[in-house]
Specification:
3 domains; alpha+beta; 367 residues; Alpha-Beta Plaits; 11 helices
Amino acid sequence: MLFSEEFLQRTFLSNSYLSYLLFFVIILFGWIIKRRGSRWVSRLVFRFFKGFSKNAYADEFVELLRKPFEVFFALLILYLACTHLEYPTQWHLGPEHKFGVKMTVTRVFETLLGAFITWIFLRITDFIAFVQTERSKRGELKADAQLISFLRELCKVAIATIGLFSILSNVYDLNITAIVTSLGIGGLAVALAAQETIANLLGSFIIFLDKPFTTGDIIETPDFKGVVESVGFRSTKIRTLDRSLLIVPNKKLVDTFLNNITRSTQRRVKFTIALTYTTGREQVTKVVNDIKRMIDAHDQTIEESIVAFSDFKDSNLDITIIYYVNTNDWDIMIKVKESINLEILKIVEQNGCRFAYPTSSVYIENQ
């Protein structure tokens, strides 16, 4: 035999070699089955949500809960392994109900267990929000994605708060009523110190109630322009046109001028072209009329364009062009603008005109 009975019964630090052997065997076995076990338990728990999700999204549910259950398995395995070991008597440790190593170890384990349970409920909340979002995309649910996201974050804050108070009450025997009372007394000081945070929180409620934009909308302010990715309690994430992620405090979005481009039905284009002073009156008139006819005939514009000889500048004659593209899609608008610009180049060339650029003419008079 690899280990004789006499050898296994020998002791070291108040524990037999057999106890140490069982400790390592349980740890090794648990490490092997941890991943498979977490997936199996996740699928078992999913049975309670099959009706809610209409038997769909099982893989998403398992992926959300796999990591928390792996942590739970690790704690459970460590607990079962440690039950075969005793604290060494020569350490002269006190009982578990008095402050010391035993109490610290016990409370750390119970705290981690409480955190795990809270983590599970947070992930379940994420799954419920995910299912509701998918239903909203398919038109099965009237609530929009922004409302679902807002309620998800609200529920997660509530769950985290309840989990924290439960751990403080059940593990550390603290008086929750006294804690809440003290928070109420110090609430004024906290509110004064966190005015910006509270203003941003109120801003999120205003965005939620007034709905100036929703997730996926293209918005423009005096400072930036981009696509709304998500609206949180404190800030809103904006994906700018150069693909960078901009985090904007909600208070700023509520207090500034905001243009929701997505909700507009058309896009306005305005620019000026400059012709040289060598251009004659009839040529200018012909260019203006040709450009207007071309824009009005375009299948992506509406017949409300404005093309006019607007200004005499220092070195050029200005023609102002204003038209509306019959879409709010940025990519389509750019393509329409490109095609119209190419046609304008063609019209100017056909009429024998030239584009102006900043120049100065010097005339020397012969005395």
